[in-house]
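Support request from a user on the community tier.

User writes: "When I paste my structure tokens into the form, the page sometimes reloads and wipes my input. The last time it worked, I copied everything first. Here is what I submitted, just in case something in the input itself triggers the reload:"
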């Protein structure tokens, strides 16, 4: 990485990057974006020398911290990755004005005394260059320069003392704070929200199950029955075209043909038709006995070990430490009706994004605009995840203030 000397800063600052880059920004706006996963801001994270984006557990504000090498305003790879996440967050939550604060770390020597104001002047120039490089990068990505303000802080407000090189690397930074517009609704949430005993809500679980690459390898097709009937019912013995060496009596789910959820990945969903138990394997064929059916079962339907599509659930729902945000895709039955309390919805984030069974999800409408005026986001309700694949999850809605449509969002933290 090329390090630019402090004496070259003044020349670098006059280069008119932003006006040029704005003309290229529109081409970036249609790229496929995904909400970043946000850790809760910890003291260890705040004192690190790596760039990061986190959520303040008290204010619910998003904190962005971009770190730089000594005497440099060049963006490192980790800084660009963090700014890419910030860009995605701002684009998906409707862009809002914010301030970039540039900092430097004060370094004195026997030759340079701050009484000459030279160190102060150099720190101001370096802070300006760092803030400008961050603004330039975000404008190049597609943000409007009119929504970005720059403040030059010099060596004010150090995170830690500037007495060592390690500490100075923490202070060489740019800070951005994104205020959550849902904060005003937290009082209502705190009064009405509570963790729930998951067992009490299992009767509301849907008959739709999610499958990813791993679980799809365990799907087998029903090709015959001992009773030689096309339509199958309880107590029939059925045969599937894959060997399963399981414990006696292990439960299998009888399901419809797996259907893709999206063209972007291999995750699928199936509809539960009934249950069967394991009998034996003979010549690579597994025999099962049907225990019950909730819909017509016939030759050509499918069977899968229930444990492969039913995650173990905790006794009680819980709030995750990470902030993971997703889009509500549809009511789980894919109906045209809107969802409300005790309905089930699918969201477009799953295990690969860090979601886990039992995690609580808060539902809200993002900020919109009407006649040119912003309408702030609105809290809609909450639920918890009880089934998930690599890229999708099913949420049972516990409480909703109004019906939830496909335009709603779901997040682990507000």
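"...and here is what came back when it finally went through:"
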């Amino acid at each position: 990485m090329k390090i630019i000397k402090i004496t070259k800063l003044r020349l670098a600052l006059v280069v008119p990057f932003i006006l040029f880059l704005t003309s290229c920004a529109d081409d970036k706006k249609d790229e496929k974006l995904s909400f970043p996963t946000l850790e809760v801001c910890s003291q260890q994270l705040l004192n690190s020398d790596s760039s990061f984006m986190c959520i303040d557990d008290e204010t619910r504000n998003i904190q962005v911290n971009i770190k730089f090498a000594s005497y440099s305003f060049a963006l490192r790879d980790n800084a660009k990755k963090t700014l890419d996440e910030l860009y995605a967050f701002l684009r998906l939550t409707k862009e809002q004005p914010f301030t970039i604060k540039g900092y430097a770390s004060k370094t004195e020597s026997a030759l340079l005394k701050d009484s000459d104001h030279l160190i102060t002047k150099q720190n101001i120039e370096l802070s300006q260059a760092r803030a400008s490089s961050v603004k330039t990068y975000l404008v190049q990505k597609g943000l409007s320069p009119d929504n970005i303000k720059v403040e030059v802080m010099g060596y004010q407000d150090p995170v830690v003392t500037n007495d060592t090189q390690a500490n100075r690397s923490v202070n060489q930074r740019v800070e951005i704070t994104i205020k959550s517009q849902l904060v005003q609704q937290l009082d209502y949430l705190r009064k009405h929200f509570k963790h729930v005993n998951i067992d009490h809500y299992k009767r509301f679980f849907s008959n739709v199950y999610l499958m990813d690459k791993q679980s799809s390898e365990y799907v087998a097709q029903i090709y015959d029955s001992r009773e030689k009937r096309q339509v199958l019912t309880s107590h029939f013995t059925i045969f599937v075209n894959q060997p399963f060496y399981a414990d006696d009596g292990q439960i299998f789910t009888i399901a419809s043909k797996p259907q893709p959820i999206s063209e972007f990945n291999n995750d699928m969903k199936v509809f539960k038709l009934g249950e069967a138990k394991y009998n034996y394997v003979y010549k690579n064929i597994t025999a099962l006995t049907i225990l019950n059916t909730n819909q017509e079962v016939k030759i050509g339907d499918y069977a899968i070990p229930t444990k492969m599509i039913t995650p173990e659930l905790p006794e009680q729902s819980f709030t995750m430490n990470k902030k993971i945000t997703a889009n509500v895709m549809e009511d789980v039955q894919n109906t045209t009706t809107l969802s409300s309390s005790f309905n089930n919805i699918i969201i477009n984030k799953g295990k690969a994004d860090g979601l886990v069974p039992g995690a609580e999800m808060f539902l809200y409408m993002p900020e919109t605009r009407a006649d040119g005026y912003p309408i702030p986001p609105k809290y809609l309700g909450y639920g918890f995840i009880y089934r998930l694949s690599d890229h999708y999850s099913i949420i049972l809605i516990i409480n909703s203030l109004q019906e939830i449509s496909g335009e709603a969002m779901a997040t682990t933290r507000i």
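Agent notes: The reload is a front-end session timeout and is unrelated to the input. The chain is about 20% helix and 30% strand. The first strand starts at residue 39 and ends at 40. Escalated to web team.
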